[in-house]
Amino acid sequence: MTAAPHQNLAAPPAPAPGSLLQLHAPALGGLEPRLRGVLADAINQPGSLFRLRLVLALGRAQNVDEEIAGRLATAVEFYHTASLLLDDLPCMDDATTRRGRPCAHRLHGEAATILGALALINRSYALVAEATVALPFHLRTETTETLDACLGCAGLVAGQARDLAFADTPPSPRAVGRAAMGKTAAMLRLALELPAIAAGASPLERRQLRRLAVYWGLLYQGLDDLRDLRLSAATGAPKTDGRDSALGRPNLALATGLPLARARLQHLEKLAAGAVRELVACGRFWSVLQLFHRQLSAPLDSV
User: Fold this and answer.
1) Mean pLDDT over the full length of the chain
2) Is residue 230 part of a domain?
């Protein structure tokens, strides 16, 4: 692997992860109030920023310029946030709360929420273009191909379609996994691969990152499935709970039962830990992934 040639050693200290959302946000001045409300809420009240922090950490570990890593990290977070805005709509999951607060469409209306999601997606593509403009042509091409694979009809869009149509298919663990692959795993792949492309990671490392994205995505979604069944809105669940059962959405625990679901998640944790070890064997800088793996798999102790 070749270290990125664009590190700026004289750069000022990097902004805090959360402040990057404000720094790179769409311009809010003069916007229609409901649209401004959607964007302001999305930017000022984020979730865990897991994907944003992952991109930043990988960028720093591989000597990617802080400005480039910051734009890529914010773009990934905005893509994720846009997907949540759409996912909560009445025509999708018909959720009422997200992160303990009323969903955007409940506060600002469905039309403004859709436009807000489009604004974040548009801003994300602009940020990726800004971040990669100085990269060699082949890396810019690989970035574009990765965006298409993760966000388009091979990734997030297809995963959401499978999610919505799940009630019409046999509720098998395989079908649950296919939906998770298109949604959760695709977004994690984006967070893992974009900084790796910017740093000039080898084809082997890129393949291992894609494997890790699959294991992490299935594990992350499986844990969310269990929380959907077990948490109440009063506990601060990420979204309105019990929706998977009510709407016939993919849910590993519903498809297999709790004991088999737990066993599957434990197996996925071991596979993901092995993928991280293989990456660390390629280069010590990949050891930053160990912290994120521990954070992602920690809920296994309580399910």
Assistant:
1) 87
2) yes
